[in-house]
Design brief:
By secondary structure, the chain is of the alpha+beta class. The chain has one domain. It is built from 8 helices and 4 strands, in the order ββααβααβαααα. A 4-stranded mixed sheet has the order 1-2-3-4. Strand 1 and strand 2 form a beta hairpin. It is globular and about 35 Å long.
Length: 158
Amino acid sequence: MARSIIHPRWFYIGNMGREIRLRPHHILCLHGFRGLGYSQGFVDNMYRVLRDLKADPRLKIRLRMGFDLICSSCTVENIKECKKTTSKAGRMDRIIYRRLKGLRKKTTLTDLLPLYYKNIKPKDIKRICRLCQWFDLGYCLPAFKDKNLLKQLEKGGV
């Protein structure tokens, strides 16, 4: 298996094991991801993140408000916008974070996804993601309703 080459600020190995830092809304993005993105580097990074999450079910995720591993491969223009606290991404993160009752600072994707499915309903996805340029492609809502990401992890295929 290919090793991930990711900036250590967003993905690292510490005393408590490997950890990946992600924005709350990027968990939703991982559901609807179909190989499209802002650039080829962004697409490659999304595949790498999905592959790492699938390959290591114990991989810890630290949800963070702001710039994360997925943002790190975005285009400069998008990075400038997303770093603003008033950005669309920041708004999505705040809504999701408020809904995730019982969230621990560090968790795994297999523990995190049931919290998402319990506290975020399909009608919420429309409200949360309506301003995202990718939402109108129609991948995200059906994938979330179908619990696509959890099924992929359970089958071992991302």
